Sequence to fold (174 residues):
Amino acid sequence: MDRPKNIVNIHDLELQPRPPQFAPTGPAADRYDARAALVSRQMGAKKLGFNVTAIPPGKRAFPLHNHQTTEEMFFILEGEGQLRLGRDTYPVRAGDLVSCPPGGRDSAHQFVNTGAMELKFLAVSTREQVDLCDYPDTGKFAVLADMAPEAGQPRMLSFVGREGEGGVGYWDGE
Fold:
């Protein structure tokens, strides 16, 4: 009997590189890389977002950031690395659970793969219609909002800027 779409084995997921429009550019391409299986919408989730992300050795998946409204939880599946959390850094390894509640820059977080193999984790988050993010290392902020789907495809509005300036590129300054 075939399984329904809301049951997936984590070992059957195919992690994909970022689409070209979201790939790091310039100097950021030397420090950032990740593959992910974005499965929550495919599985029919409405209020939770979840994915499996793998970071190659020596890389980071995303810039240090915090969410004003979205709450995240990470479960380290494989590998080891470091979690930057606020101004501190902590070692992480397979089996660790990490909670990142919404809040200010003291809740900013970033995973860095310091090991010899991929750092792989399950990320689970609330799906808020609008989220605001801060990027403390570069002084940027982002406004992210889910929009009504078009032709069955999800859409998102995003604006990245710096206070007192106009918009900037997501990877600007990274």
Observations:
- The radius of gyration is 16 Å.
- The longest strand covers residues 140-150.
- The mean pLDDT is 94.
- DSSP finds no helices and 13 strands in the chain.
